[in-house]
Amino acid sequence: MKKVIMAAALAALVCTSAFAQQPNTLTAKEKKAGWKLLFDGKTTTGWHTYQKDAASPAWKVEDGALVLDQNAKKNGAPGGDLVTNEEYENYALSIQWKISEGGNSGIIFGVHESPEYKNTYETGPEMQVLDDDKHPDGKIIKHNAGDLYDLVKSSSKAVKPVGQWNTAEIIKKDGHLTLKLNGVTTVQTTVGTPEWDALVANSKFKTWKGFGKYQKGHIALQDHGNEVAYRDIKIRAL
């Protein structure tokens, strides 16, 4: 009897797995709701390195994920932040990330791509991607995974252990900004308000003239010098 029960449980697990949604795909319901993939799981189509015409060779597609390969950089391949070809203003973004041990990266949005700005983070706020336990930033308030970097501390700690995939959401509508990590709302604020200006004035960005000023902009995946992987990147206009 035990063998029969175990066999049935295994069959149910296999069946569930077979019908589970695969990364980098959209369900019929998502398509109807207006979701679009920003990453096809196979190429860097739709992305380019900031201030460049194409994606740098250090960003590779491995096992259905966009991976920043630090070994490639050591061998001379240029890195740099990867940004969407398109700009977005009112949207819901969903993205999965997995960081290396002791690693640091970020999802930067509202990026204004212009020669006057050398880096994506000069204009775009960042949702932090981090190994909180082993990276030094893990001990700094407003620098943890799920935080609005250096601006707003997460209301809840929702990050998964290193080696596991996390699902981040950035929802921005008419300036109102919501960040979620693994289904938990971590940050809510509104860009362009006096309260927002106060947050910036009390941050490392207080003297940066373009920071947080662009409601419409590119979305960027940060090269912070550590290996990181991103997949299942999708967006819906609001």
What is this structure, in a nutshell?
Helices cover 16% and strands 31% of the residues. It is an alpha+beta fold. The strands form two sheets. Strands 1, 3, 4, 6, 9, 10, 11 and 13 form an eight-stranded antiparallel sheet that branches. Strands 2-5-12-7-8 form a five-stranded antiparallel sheet, with no helix packed on it.
Written account of the structure:
- The chain has 238 residues and is of the alpha+beta class.
- It is built from four helices and 13 strands.
- Strands 1, 3, 4, 6, 9, 10, 11 and 13 form an eight-stranded antiparallel beta sheet that branches.
- Strand 9 and strand 10 form a beta hairpin.
- The longest helix has 18 residues, at 2-19.
- It is globular.
Which regions contain 5 or more consecutive residues with pLDDT less than 50?
9-17
Biggest sheet record: 8 strands, antiparallel
Counting DSSP H or I runs of 4 or more residues, the number of helices is 4
Question: Roughly how much helix do the residues carry, as a percent range?
Answer: 10-25%
Whole-number average pLDDT?
92
Shape: globular
Strand content: 25-35%
> How do the helices and strands follow one another from N- to C-terminus?
HHEEEEHEEEEEEEHEE
Helical/strand content category: alpha+beta
Through-space gap between termini: 53 Å
The counted number of beta strands is 13
Rg over C-alpha atoms, rounded to the nearest angstrom: 19 Å
